[in-house]
Amino acid sequence: MKKRSPITEAFLFTLLTLGLSYFVFWGPIALFQVPTINFVENTRGPLWAIILFLLGGFVPSGVSLILVRLFEGKEGFKRFLKRTFQFNIGWRWYLTTVLVVAFGGLGQILINRLPGNHFKFSLYLSQLPSFIPLIILGPLSEEYGWRGYLSTKLQQKWSALASSVTVGVVWALWHLPLFFMIGTSQHELQIPFIGFLVGIVSVSILMTWINNNTRNSLWAAILFHWLYTFTVQVNSTGITRSGLYNRLEYLPYVIMALAVLFIWGPKNLYGCRSKQTGSIADQLQQHAPNPVKNQ
After folding, report:
1. CB count in 10 Å sphere of residue 137
2. Is the pLDDT of residue 295 over 50?
3. Cβ neighbours around 141 below 10 Å, total
4. 61, 145 in Cβ contact below 8 A?
């Protein structure tokens, strides 16, 4: 099959992912205001709408798997899936992933306290049974697309920062129908989209940083997304939203993203700025890149 430019493949992924979400799965539900699952009041709409809603969440990963199989063939598809099992990312990056999500979640709780609101930390324990199922909705249903495919393709031609911002924007736009869909937390809690966009771009930068320093491990991306989803879920049930909180909600992630860019540099987000000697693209040419040596 004729080789295509990574940017062309990234554009095709974006077009298919947003197109399917807007015109097949989530868009019609939002347009016609059909209720699905109300996460705030625990009510449900018609079964067909719930099915469309749930299937829509798997569009990023589903599209990426189809494109990899189509463009990379059977062997490329196997290499792509093997990245899910790159568990050996080093204890420092396991710790870093946990600390980044913990700092972001704690920062949001502290912002919530500024107007005098309180937060029950016991919510983390009471909602712990939902932790295992959450690996499906979000981490596995999305990360094959965002970090596994789109970020990998873009970084073959663009800088880590440009790639991260692009992935973040596409990621946020993919969520846009949820802001108009009855029953979703975005709609029911009246979360402002601009703030969400800034936050998602910041999270995208942090995830690229971790990805590029863990041999482009899909597992690292899935783990981060998993912990992040759980933290967001718990915080959203215990935090009292206000105008101040809506404006500052993602400030902890913005601060961390800026710090990472300053220390590691926007070109690669890999190793140390002073020791970077080229593009990270060489390690992203294949879906299962060669192991990266510590710098």
Report:
1. 13
2. no
3. 20
4. yes
- Do 30 and 181 touch, CB atoms closer than 8 A? yes
CA 21/CA 29 separation, integer angstroms: 10
Return the closest-CA partner of residue 234 out of 113, 102, 94: 102
Q: Report residue 268 CA to chain centroid gap.
A: 19
Q: Report the half-sphere exposure of 241 (CA within 13 A, side-chain side).
A: 13
At 24, list the tokens.
């097949």
User: Taking the CA atoms of the chain, what radius of gyration do you get in angstroms?
Assistant: 19
pLDDT digits (tens, 9 = 90+) for 24-69: 999 999 999 999 876 556 678 899 999 999 999 999 999 999 999 9
For the chain, domain boundaries: 6-26+51-284
Residue with tokens 């400030």: 251
Give pLDDT tens digits for 78-91.
999 999 999 999 99
| Whole-prediction pTM | 0.91
In one-letter notation, the amino acid at residue 171 is: W
Contacts of 226 (CB under 8 A, 6+ apart): 134, 135, 138, 139
